[in-house]
Design goal:
Layout (H helix, E strand, L loop, with lengths): L9 H8 L6 H24 L5 H21 L1
């Protein structure tokens, strides 16, 4: 097995130290697996898409404007 070294802030390390019963390496490993599974699903979904990056950016910007307008009304 390969090793991976992570850097965490002092504050985060302090909080982690409050829970010595937790295997933080396993938490990180599971989180990485979860993220990779999500990325794999996204890749499979996007492989069938005809949208270009430019199209996706335009849709995202329109959505952001609509959300901002809705938030402004509240």
């Amino acid at each position: 097995m390969t090793s991976l070294t992570l850097s965490v802030s002092k504050e985060l390390k302090k909080l982690m130290d409050e829970h010595p019963e937790i295997n933080w390496s396993e938490v990180a490993r599971q989180s990485i697996i979860q993220k990779l599974t999500l990325l794999d699903k996204m890749d499979k979904l996007l492989a069938k898409s005809n949208l270009t990056e430019k199209d996706a950016i335009a849709i995202g910007r329109r959505a952001n404007r609509r959300i901002a307008a809705r938030m402004k009304q509240n």
